[in-house]
Task: structure prediction
Amino acid sequence: MDADAVTPPPAGFADQALAEIAQAMAEPARARMLCCLLDGHARTATELAAAAEIGASTASAHLNRLIGAGLLRCEAQGRHRYHRLAGGEVGAALEAMLVLAARQREQAAPPFEPRTPPELREARRCYDHMAGDWAVRWHEHVLRQGWLSEKPDQPRSYQLSPTGQDALAALGLDVGAALQQRRRFACPCMDWSVRRPHLGGALGAAWLALLERQAWVEGALDSRALRITARGRAGLQGLLSEG
Result:
């Protein structure tokens, strides 16, 4: 037998696992907890219970269900236990579900008008990368400039051009570190408030980290919203107007 051959999972395994994950999400309190953690911050059970508007004992049962489904990770630090999303793929799945949820609320094919609060629509965290209007504009800019292009053999995955590597390095982004991470380098992530993709993956996370280091954006512990500073607004407008 070929040593590199992969034994396929038993019939029904993948769809059964999908059903179990969907069932774990399919409860309003658990959904609110998951969405609360989309900003990438870890929170205690008490904080998540308050966000979900439920009691502590009920929250504990819900959190155990989410951990068991592989959607959350619990980390102990001293006397406290903190909960966070299990990874970026969970954040991406939640964002995709939010797109579907918003579509369900739309009436028969009206023009799309976002009802997202303005501060979240402008810029917010999508787990470890940026979402919202500014993030969508940045994604469209890097594609228009030819810095990124879709991989021929991997749909929904981007490859970096030599021009793109030089341009991003000139902006101060550590492309090498992003390339070395054991995760997808760059990919489109559908933005539920704009309905066009923003940039996800290791490169998207590195871009947000750079914006925070340069004080172009500022975050808050109690919200997914990212505030674009005056310096950041000027810098982003100048950058996105190029080309």
Notes: The first helix runs from residue 13 to 25. Residues 27 and 62 are 9 Å apart (CA to CA).
